[in-house]
Amino acid sequence: MYVYDEFDRAFLAERTAEFRDQVERRLSGALSEDEFKPLRLMNGVYLQLHAYMLRIAIPYGTLSATQLRRMAYVARHYDRGYGHFTTRQNIQFNWIKLENLPDAMASLAEVGVHGIQTSGNCIRNVTTDQWAGATPEECDDPRIWAEILRQYSTLHPEFTYLPRKFKIAITAAAKDRAAVKVHDVGLRLHRNEAGELGFEVLVGGGLGRTPFVGKSIRKFLPARHLLSYIEAIMRVYNQFGRRDNIYKARIKILVHEIGAEAFAEAVEKEWEAIRDGALHLSDEIIADIRARFLYPAYETLADQPAELTEALKDPAFATWHRNSVTTHKRPGYAIVTVSLKPVGAPPGDATADQMDVVADLAERYGFNEIRVGHEQNLCLPNVAQKDLPALWRALEAAGLATPNVNLVNDIIACPGLDYCALANARAIPVAQEIAKRFADLEKARGVGRLHVNISGCINACGHHHVGHIGILGVEKNGQEFYQITLGGRADEHAQLGTLLGPAVSYEQVPGLIEDVVDTYMELRSGPQELFVDTVARLGIEPFKERVYAAH
User: Fold this and answer.
1) What is the pLDDT along the chain (551 residues), one digit of tens a residue?
2) Which residues contact residue 409 at a Cβ distance below 8 angstroms, ignoring those fewer than 6 apart?
């Protein structure tokens, strides 16, 4: 984990004091809501359907046990006893009263977390692979570079008032778990033929009202030029991005309208003027940031210890192990995904008690470290294999051992109309009903890997466009209807889903999804063919014919 210094702590203390003054002026009437709005948004405070919502950044998805425990404290003392983890590695508190916000933020600042730049037209929280630093797949730890970008972008004076919000994601593995192709800028860290470390740079990805998959504008950028090249991209966007129309203000629209080639030419021209200036990353600077990351003091352990072999004789443990545990870069260790999707619960929610449990387990078994994933689950990235049975028992007792990771009931969903003032339809109840249809985990395992994504409006916070099955809530004559898309994916082969047909009512959605899955089970070439691959092979017509005939 990255070790913050006195500068970081002083900065957060000053920012919290500043926000406390702003809240006091709002409560006294000295500031109107319109005047207060830009100030609160700079600190991650939204006005939702029923209350203010506080969004806290979790830089590159990495948390300490101390930080997670403090989030549990905030949930318990200032909210309603839970928090919601999002697709961009943030946590949201939905019920904090305005007068309590400064105290909540001060409490979080004490452990180094905050809501700065989790809202507004600025560079948002930089995200990455939740397995970063632990998986054997990666060429380098992408969190190093995410931290460099975090320091560069925080309160950057030139990019505080962009045409629209700006999101960056990084991956360093061939398997993309950070959805880099649907971000404003996606960075794929890899080595060229000479062994030099660098980035493929993608721009113009994004979902929402007008979804696009990002375009590659540079196949290899030497890592030392990361900041100057990002600066060049930001300058081109800041200069030419639309400010007259909020729906056309994102960089994806600019790239689409002028073309990726013309955009790349403009960036290269801007970059040439600054590439070897103050933003050049020397070996010393990179080494300093790298040295601030503390890695676990791994023991020398053998794979498949006796404790694990014996525990695998228990079918329940074996099922969880097969579903939720993956290979670590060090022998004798494992990466564990903690599902926040028990059947019937809101996807991505964790109670204060559950957060405390995960924090305790991270201290006991995971070198004090927790990750938040794009899929709204948590991860303990460094667990000794010999400790997996004890960890499982503790997770099971806390309701956190549902073995449904990457299955049809591991659903990504935004808060929807239950919370959000922008939503047209509910998302959480739809997710809950679909999950109940596949509550039989044997049935879900038989279906195999299948990602269902639900958004309550066109803003696509649930990333429905890139779900294997995507569900979008729309409003028709005051009623909730849902459009269904098939064949989307957010990984290294990212593509947008195809609309299945006419929107269906709220009541019809769970049955329709069940029919789609049943159709897939009949049409797939065998158990090894994933849902998304069957759709790619056959198209949506066979699904459309069968599903709408039944509805």
Assistant:
1) 888 888 999 999 999 999 999 999 999 999 999 999 999 999 999 999 999 999 999 999 999 999 999 999 999 999 999 999 999 999 999 999 999 999 999 999 999 999 999 999 999 999 999 999 999 999 999 999 999 999 999 999 999 999 999 999 999 999 999 999 999 999 999 999 999 999 999 999 999 999 999 999 999 999 999 999 999 999 999 999 999 999 999 999 999 999 999 999 999 999 999 999 999 999 999 999 999 999 999 999 999 999 999 999 999 999 999 999 999 999 999 999 999 999 989 999 999 999 999 999 999 999 999 999 999 999 999 999 999 999 999 999 999 999 999 999 999 999 999 999 999 999 999 999 999 999 999 999 999 999 999 999 999 999 999 999 999 999 999 999 999 999 999 999 999 999 999 999 999 999 999 999 999 999 999 999 999 999 999 999 999 999 988 76
2) 341, 343, 434, 435, 438, 439, 444, 452
Residues in the chain: 551
**Identity of the residue numbered 119:** S
Please state, in angstroms and rounded to a whole number, the distance separating the CA atoms of residues 115 and 322: 36
Which residues are CB-neighbours of 293 under 8 A, at least 6 positions away?
1, 2, 3, 133, 141, 143, 144, 147
138 in Cβ contact with 101 (< 8 Å): no
Per 3-state DSSP, the chain is made up of helix, strand and coil in percentages (nearest 5) of: 40, 20, 40
* H-helix or E-strand spanning residue 433: helix 428-437
Other C-beta atoms within 10 Å of 300: how many?
7
CB atoms within 10 A of CB 487: 24
CA angle 150, 156, 248 (to 5 degrees): 95
| Residue 399 identity (one-letter amino acid) | G
What global pTM score does this model have?
0.97
Q: Are 45 and 52 in contact (CB under 8 A)?
A: yes
Cβ contact 466:207 at 8 Å: yes
Q: What angle do CA 78, 80, 83 make, to 5 degrees?
A: 90
